[in-house]
Design a protein that fits this description.
Blueprint (H helix, E strand, L loop, with lengths): L3 E7 H16 L7 E7 L6 H17 L22 E7 L12 H5 L6 H10 L2 H5 L10 H21 L4 H16 L3 E6 L6 H5 L3 H12 L7 E7 L3 E2 L5 H4 L13 H14 L1 H6 L2 E5 L7 E2 L22 H15 L9 E3 L4 E3 L2 E4 L8 H21 L10 H10 L11 H14 L1 E4 L2 E4 L1 H6 L4 E3 L10 H4 L17 E3 L5 E3 L2 H14 L13 H18 L5
Parallel strand pairs: 1-2, 1-4, 2-3, 4-5, 5-7, 6-8, 7-9, 11-14
Antiparallel strand pairs: 10-11, 12-13, 15-16
Helix pairs in contact: 1-2, 1-13, 2-16, 6-7, 6-9, 7-9, 14-16, 14-20
């Protein structure tokens, strides 16, 4: 029986790690897998949370066959194609925003704020700002409080479900936990988040225990799942809060990036020595970043105060988050697990004179699979956005693909796509690569990853140019160093190897696409509807052109 896969993304950093995980799913890294995703954040309005919700909705819209019933949204798992994994999304957040009972710690812990004995007891352990800061934007790097509060929130949700007074997201959480319980020893649960901030740092230690205790409120059944998590230490900073901000009501505690290094050190000591962690986790993946090359999330922003959360917390993606997504990949594809004590894993990449030189093998041992699918998806996205005008406002590139096929008298996909189908696929390519706003390139996920550090990232630096006139000349057939994979090469008039121009390589790709007409489903399963059939044929064509052995 195949293992059941679960991903839990926690806090703002966890959401950006999840964003990388979704894009790995889109390029086809999780063939034939059904993955159950839980987003867990105290801040329902968080910008990074909304962005990944929208991305998963878009992913599932692309994968859904035309005319499918609502229950079939997201299609089925497939293989040897893009968008091969089926992603099921569950959303949970504690009721810190809407319910005044849960807006601050004093409301939860003291209960009766008019009871002087309760107030005095709480004051022995916690200063007044810690008791009264607004929880709607998370735990603000107060991990000692956050772990207690997240555990309380999960158990409180279970109690409400039992009393039939639960909110929809609380019912959804208990259904998610129940699916883990029902999977028994076949469940693999991977948690994405950081250990130096607030919500993620607070939740990673307590999630396995909180889930077990919450489910015990309803039914006395054990959780036998294998748990893993990313332990992502400090990799970004932002403007520290000023005294004026901290004097505002509910703002007595604000996360200060100056303490993130200390937070990371303390957290690693905890994970090394805590017996509950040793007992509940199988693998923990240490992911770190050189302190002197941290990303500055305040750069280019105009806020005069530290952004504590909400829609303004919309930070770009970082290469460490991609490494965390690959930690989940490793956990889901491992065949061996320790019997007793948790094991700690890490990878290294070349770091020279303050810059990284990332190769495909730095993310995945079986690098050929990643190389083929990432480079292939990049090529298809670039053709769609640039050669077929998908980047142009109010246009999409799928019509260009269909028109080109019709010109060559290839009618397989004629009248099979709605306008919405075309827009959704085009929109995903923009989210993956780049968009154009007011004549300027707006970075999509892959561009953000590349520009989160200095050095090399997998493909030539020219592949991530922000000058559109340069982008138009990028030849996807010469991205890789292996000569066998350089399908965009021709010969100069002197007979020497020379790159073709981008338009000529596009023509070569279309010719190969037509030749693959009868071999689309040959190595694929569950290819439903015209959209997935087209994507499978594009996948097979680019894989054949690149000549990278993937299996």
């Amino acid at each position: 029986m195949a293992d059941k896969l679960f991903v839990i993304a926690i806090g703002g950093t966890g959401m950006r790690c999840l964003e990388s995980f979704v894009h790995l799913s889109a390029i086809g890294m999780f063939d034939s897998k059904e993955i159950n995703i839980l987003t867990l954040d105290t801040d329902q309005a968080n910008g990074n949370l909304k962005r990944v919700w929208d991305l998963i909705d878009l992913y599932n819209a692309v994968k859904t066959p035309a005319g499918a019933a609502p229950a079939d949204f997201g299609g089925k798992p497939s293989n040897n194609t893009f968008f091969s994994a089926k992603l099921n999304l569950t959303k949970y957040w504690p009721s810190y925003s809407g319910d005044v009972t849960y807006q601050k710690l004093s409301k939860i812990a003291i209960k009766d704020e008019n009871n002087q004995e309760n107030i005095d007891l709480a004051s022995l352990f916690l200063e007044e700002p810690a008791q009264t800061f607004n929880l709607a934007h998370g735990y603000r790097a107060q991990t000692h409080l956050g772990s207690q509060l997240m555990y309380h929130a999960i158990l409180d949700s279970a109690i409400k479900v039992k009393k039939n007074t639960a909110a929809p997201q609380e019912k959804a959480l208990m259904q998610y936990i129940e699916s883990i319980v029902k999977a028994g020893k076949d469940a693999r649960v991977f948690i994405l988040g950081s250990i130096f901030g607030g919500t993620g740092a607070s939740s990673i230690p307590v999630i396995p225990v909180a889930f077990k205790d919450a489910y015990a409120i309803a039914k006395s059944l054990p959780i036998e799942a294998k748990f893993g998590a990313s332990l992502l230490t400090e990799y970004f900073s932002f403007t520290s809060p000023n005294e004026a901000q901290k004097k505002k009501p509910g703002e007595g505690v604000v996360a200060d990036a100056n303490y993130f290094t200390l937070n990371s050190q303390a957290a690693l000591q905890f994970y090394e020595n805590d017996p509950t962690v040793e007992r509940t986790y199988k693998y923990l993946y240490n992911v770190g970043w050189p302190v002197n090359t941290k990303a500055d999330f305040s750069k280019g922003k105009t806020e005069t105060e530290t952004v504590t959360g909400g829609e303004k917390q919309l930070n770009p993606c970082h290469v460490t988050e991609l490494m965390c997504a690959f930690a989940a990949y490793d956990f889901f594809t491992r065949e061996d697990f320790p019997e007793k004590k948790v094991e700690y894993l890490f990878r290294t990449a070349k770091f020279d004179e303050g810059t990284f030189q990332f190769e495909f093998k730095d993310f995945l041992d079986s690098e050929k699979i990643f190389k083929n699918r990432l480079t292939g998806f990049y090529a298809i996205a670039l053709f769609t956005l640039v050669n077929l005008d998908g980047i142009v406002k109010d246009k999409e590139g799928l019509t260009g693909w269909l028109n080109r096929m019709k010109l060559m008298k290839y009618m397989e996909f004629e009248n099979t796509f709605s306008d919405l189908d075309k827009k959704q696929i085009n929109a995903y390519f923009k989210a993956f690569l780049f968009n154009m706003e007011s004549g300027q390139i707006s970075e999509g996920w892959l561009y953000q990853i590349r520009n989160s550090f200095t050095g090399k990232f997998l493909l030539p630096n020219s592949s991530f140019d922000k000058d559109f006139s340069v982008i138009q000349k990028i030849n996807p057939g010469v991205l890789l160093e292996d000569e066998k994979s350089q399908w965009g090469m021709g010969k100069s008039r002197f007979g020497k190897p020379s790159p073709k121009d981008a338009a000529e390589s596009f023509n070569d790709f279309v010719d190969e696409f037509i030749k693959n007409e009868n071999t689309i489903i040959e190595d694929s399963q569950n290819i439903e509807g015209a959209k997935m059939k087209l994507l499978a044929q594009l996948f097979k064509t680019i894989s054949k052109k690149q000549q990278i052995e993937t299996f």
